[in-house]
């Protein structure tokens, strides 16, 4: 792990991007060799207000960046549209992509998988870089084999518009894969006030709390006669994603194929 | 508090009753002088299988019990019907009643209040003897003056048929008394799965979890920009009621009027 | 509460100060009339980089500020030294001070109390503006009358050097005031690893967790046979102090005397 | 899983034993064929006061029981001394043992392992039958690969004499196996009150709460910049062990070797 990994980054000025710059700068064996940014062609990162003091060139033309820079890993923190174009360029240049988006279509994923195979170049696409959240979902799926009953409570700030959260629904779906379909709770239970028992995903109940003061939290509670087992992930800052990005960069160096989801990089 | 309090108990063989006998026996300044029980006329408590070794007589005729026994406090742990008759007998004998039921009608409560006043005899009627639950509700009402947003999560075993719990609804109603009516959460929030946001009591959301492994738990969560304040009561055993009964017995000795709810005995 | 309150602020560029500016700007019935700042004499707030768009003059000479500005309330978010000088100036000008520091000496507090009385001008000094924390301590003191056993767990980021936290120790001291001194836990309990049972304040145990990912959290757990009652305050952002500042500003308008601690403004 | 498993049980009158009888009776594909009990030779289970209505013979002589009964699995819920004798008898009769004790010596374990191998008969020895606790430890070990910092809080009733709990120490040891040894917290952190930071196991801090109202609870908290991941196991009743016993009985039917710990039966 002590050999230096040379990194290209697309999207250095976004919230995630600037955190990624800090993470790269703070990691001894990571080296930023350049960035792709639609603005600031010809400048260096350290010349941009608010970005860390790194002497790496910025290219507004992605093609040019991939032609000129000599990188091991390409991190994309832009958007699905640009990310898709960048990712193909990276694979074609045998630079391993680490991509944080859930926005690619099935067709796009298939194409990238094929291209990774053709080029024998590793790629990691991660819809969620929060390692704690990924572990929460993985542990939930494991626990579901031994506990018949589970409910999910997710708590977010009250600016969040949708309920339940995508993570809560995904957790329920992962659990559903490993258990026999069944309704939970007493068969004769009654709601005296509608909604009290939450949303129902294949018998599992999901509850969404929306309060100022919360950022993003989820607890998955397994119950059985005489015991409960609870797995709780609490996210307080987007810095939490950076340990996942770092992990993905290190892992993509060890593979030559397509991986979707950090959970598939874990032992 | 070191002067002995002489106690009569109705309902010694019920679950609550037998816990009360243990509590009385374990309290130095409490003395059981006799019991009312529809069975076992003429026996003593220690002669009944499963009850503690107390040499106190049992009367099946309540009138006779009140005529013969010299008590300071009368505890009723039977049912609303018998309890109502017993309570009037107690007040008429100037014996202070401590009654644990939520089953009296408004008319019955009014009548007992008048009788307490006529006889200048203190009486405590407590629908909930769990001191922790009473404090939770009281603190919630206090916190609501300083926090605009609150949600309630109550968790019970999956044999419970009704949702939300009576305590959750009562907590919301107590909070409602002290705040301006308003809806919480984002005005544009959407449930992609119905019920996710729980039941709605005047803008407050209530979530009911039903899982084996839980007994009875409630958390009241207040949120505000940058902070949350949570009050959590967890009941694991009906022994929890006995500290409330003990508190009520001690307090009823200090009053000469009608009190409804332990919260009104607290400073 | 709809009459406008005119406010002076000292320390507008500090972290707390700039949050206070946002709070004042976001509150309809608050009006900023001017600031005291050792820099930027003669400018207005909106001319300072990073501060909100408020057209209020800055004075570097506090005496001049108090002479020229017509304010109802003076908020000081500087430091104990400047704060002490400012507070006396404010009282002498019959402007009600709201001061957030725990750094005044007993002598200074006595002097300010006397001056407040002489000038018949209300003043609030609050060592803690987090309303949730103040309520947590208040509820803890109330619950301690009904529960003999309590432990405190406080959780902070791992940059915090001291353990236990000042709030945890203060909470224990407040509880100590209202209960008979006694040791908790089993008399024969043994630590097989030293420190397992935490710090001991008059029989109450305090546990300090230090982990990255936490900001500032404290739970106070009361236990009794069959039940626990937990009060948990979680602070995720210094914005949490602003509801306390706002509350103090509104309350100081209703008093003409010296108050120390937000808890003494609560009903 | 629908083929009936014939079960022998030693220790039917103990707390665990009687729960095991209920579990066997409540499981369709389990059949009790007889019990070993030092009392009640010649009676059947249903003749013993307080035991369920099962018509299975009791033997006080274990040798005789193993000679006469035709069982697939032998469950021992007695004590290490008897358990050791019984287990050897079971293996010699090619009856698969499921043993719940942590009291066997290394020599005894080696001998049983050899005997299992010689007889090609599966055996499960489980020091902890609480599946939730086993999963908590397993998940903790997995999470430790991705989180450098962890603390453990265990909460028990105040009748417990030792601190920290055996489960907490074992959890720390399991984590220690998979991480580089390092101290946590700030290098300059100071305890102003001794014990505040808890016990220290190879840099991990363990905190032991002892309060009435708790039964047995443990939370393992992993922290990282911007996120925490918490795994919490709460045991409220010894019934919680029975799902583990049931799981072990089902699994022991599928193996022909020695397994120590339920975690080694999990996928």
Give a short summary of the structure.
The structure is a homotetramer of 267-residue chains. Chain A is α/β, with parallel strands linked by helices and 267 residues long. Helix content of chain A is 31%, strand content 26%.
3D architecture notes:
- The structure is a homotetramer of 267-residue chains.
- Helices cover 31% and strands 26% of the residues of chain A.
- Chain A contains 7 helices and 14 strands.
- In chain A, the strands form 2 sheets. In chain A, strands 3-2-1-4-5-6-14 form a 7-stranded parallel sheet, sandwiched between helices. A 5-stranded mixed sheet of chain A has the order 10-11-7-12-13, covered by helices on one side.
- Chain A has 2 domains: 5-125 and 239-265, 3-Layer(aba) Sandwich (Rossmann fold), CATH 3.40.50.720; 131-235, 2-Layer Sandwich (Dihydrodipicolinate Reductase, domain 2), CATH 3.30.360.10.
- Chain A has helices at 15-25, 62-68, 80-92, 106-119, 131-143, 166-178, 240-252; strands at 5-10, 30-36, 58-59, 73-76, 96-99, 123-125, 149-156, 162-163, 190-191, 199-201, 204-210, 216-224, 227-235, 258-260.
- The mean pLDDT of chain A is 95.
- The longest helix of chain A has 14 residues, at 106-119.
- In chain A, helix 1 crosses helix 7 (240-252).
- Chain A has 267 residues and is of the alpha/beta class.
- Chain B binds chain C through residues 130-133, 135-136, 138-139, 142-143, 145-147, 222, 224-243, 247, 266-267, and chain C through 130-133, 135-136, 138-139, 142-143, 145-147, 222, 224-243, 247, 266-267.
- Strand 13 (227-235) of chain B pairs antiparallel with strand 13 (227-235) of chain C.
- Chains A, B, C, D: Residues 5-129 form the Dihydrodipicolinate reductase N-terminal domain.
- Chains A, B, C, D: InterPro entries: DapB_C (IPR022663), DapB_N (IPR000846), DapB_N_CS (IPR022664), DHDPR_bac (IPR023940), NAD(P)-bd_dom_sf (IPR036291).
- Chains A, B, C, D: It catalyses: (S)-2,3,4,5-tetrahydrodipicolinate + NAD(+) + H2O = (2S,4S)-4-hydroxy-2,3,4,5-tetrahydrodipicolinate + NADH + H(+); (S)-2,3,4,5-tetrahydrodipicolinate + NADP(+) + H2O = (2S,4S)-4-hydroxy-2,3,4,5-tetrahydrodipicolinate + NADPH + H(+).
- Chains A, B, C, D: Catalyzes the conversion of 4-hydroxy-tetrahydrodipicolinate (HTPA) to tetrahydrodipicolinate.
- Chains A, B, C, D: Residues 179-189 have a biased composition (Basic and acidic residues).
